Amino acid sequence: MNIHTSAMPSPAPVLRVEGLSKQFEMHHLKRTLFAFENIGFELNEGEFILLKGENGAGKSTLLRTLYRSYLPRAGHAYYHTREGVIDLAAAADVDIALLRRREIGFVTQFLNARPRVAADEIVAEPLRLAGTPRAEALSEARRWLAAFGVKPQLWPAYPSTFSGGEQQKVNLARALILPQRLLLLDEPTASLDRSARRALVGRLAELKASGVAMIGVFHHPEDVAGLIDREIQLETIRIADEAEEDVVE
Ligand SMILES: Nc1ncnc2c1ncn2[C@@H]1O[C@H](COP(=O)(O)OP(=O)(O)OP(=O)(O)O)[C@@H](O)[C@H]1O
Ligand SMILES: [Mg+2]
């Protein structure tokens, strides 16, 4: 017999961050630069956290640390995969590579354009890797390029010659074509025109409704006002002069 104690199932946790800290050792200056200290928060399926703070407060560094481009100095980032919990702060590189392919997406304003790969092929690649047949993946890719306003003449062209905004649209189409469980967004709307921004926010709303958890920095937070569940404010860490004496060589 099934006994239901609550009418609404509570949302499944995706990420629990505890005491996460990151600093950069500036060896040439014999100084330590504190990017962020003792960050903690929880994120459930379908939730959207807006990351705020002034220039240099550590927003991009926090996102990169969660994506494990950087190792944190201290703390944990417990990520709930479909199979179990893994600490992103300590996981093996092979596990991180697998998560990046299947579950955790990172969107910046910069396209890492590879030479001599066509725009539609770049966008279709995540679907191809997930096993979608080529023709189907390409047609889906073109649908997304169109949705973000990339002209059809550019679909078979190499993005290395595209304008900054066009490159960003290719980047977004690629990053958002396959729903991830966790999406890290670092100013994805910078240099996008209004209609592309609208297409992006529409897609983010769709992903959120399907359960994707997101943490994002937005140049125009009003674009995503309807999606925000919580805000995290990163404070710029001012270093006292005597901190130099604490530098680890
Ligand atoms: N690889 C690095 N090596 C050394 N210092 C770094 C590195 N990356 C970032 N920093 C420093 O860490 C601090 C936080 O940088 P970060 O890029 O995270 O800021 P941000 O909040 O994203 O700022 P912005 O709003 O300008 O994008 C800055 O003082 C920056 O100079
Ligand atoms: Mg930044």
UniProtKB/TrEMBL annotation:
Record InterPro entries: AAA+_ATPase, ABC_transporter-like_ATP-bd, ABC_transporter-like_CS, ABC_transpr_LolD-like, P-loop_NTPase
A Pfam cross-reference name: ABC_tran
PROSITE patterns xref list: ABC_TRANSPORTER_1, ABC_TRANSPORTER_2
Transmembrane segments annotated in the record for this chain: none
Domain of life from the UniProt record: Bacteria
Entry annotated with the keyword Transport: no
Domain ABC transporter: 15-248
GO molecular function: ATP binding
Entry keyword Ion transport: no
Keywords on record: ATP-binding, Nucleotide-binding
Family: Belongs to the ABC transporter superfamily.
Name the UniProt record assigns to this protein: ATP-binding cassette domain-containing protein
